[in-house]
Amino acid sequence: MSRDDPGLLEALTRLGGGLFGMLQSRLELASIELGEARARLVFTLVAAFAAALLLAGAALALSAWIALALWSTLGYAVLGWIALVYLVAGVAVLLWLRERLRGHPPLLADTLTELRNDAAFMRGEAAPEPSSAAPERR
Fold it and tell me: For residue 25, what are the CA distances in angstroms to 18, 31, 86, 117, 129?
């Protein structure tokens, strides 16, 4: 085989170009996923902050109203009962949030699935079924 053999050089060039194209498409997919995650995070944070601010104002007003209404019969105990209600509600929200966060697929799940499929293809193996890939997004 001579050094000037155009077949080998052309094959290596095509292989390199194919690998580069595959890597480029996977990086584009990762970029899209990161952009979606960022947009979702910003929206969630803004909405959560607004909701927390409004709910805190409502809870403060309601607590003051309940405390004033029940002060003559329960005295200081009314403040303890109000605090207990807030504690139970806060724990419930934290448990709900933890379950919600566990239900989301990991960041870049689609990209990682595609990279695994690419690696399996390069090894000559069959790619996994699409249903076994990342969980469906909500």
Answer: 11, 10, 49, 13, 20
| Predicted TM-score (pTM) of this structure | 0.48
Q: Looking at the domain assignment, is residue 14 inside a domain?
A: yes
CA distance 13 to 54: 61
Q: How many domains does the chain have?
A: 1
pLDDT tens-digit series, residues 81-124: 999 999 999 999 999 988 888 887 777 788 788 878 877 777 77
Please determine, for residue 132, whether its predicted confidence score (pLDDT) is greater than 50.
Answer: no
CA distances from 29 to 22, 25, 36, 50, 102 (A): 11, 6, 11, 32, 23
- Residue 138 placed within a domain: no
Identify the three-state secondary structure at position 129.
coil
Distance separating alpha carbons of residues 21 and 18, to the nearest angstrom? 5
Long-range CB pairs of 49-52 (<8 Å, 24+ gap) are none
> What dihedral do alpha carbons 127, 102, 58, 51 form, nearest 10°?
-30
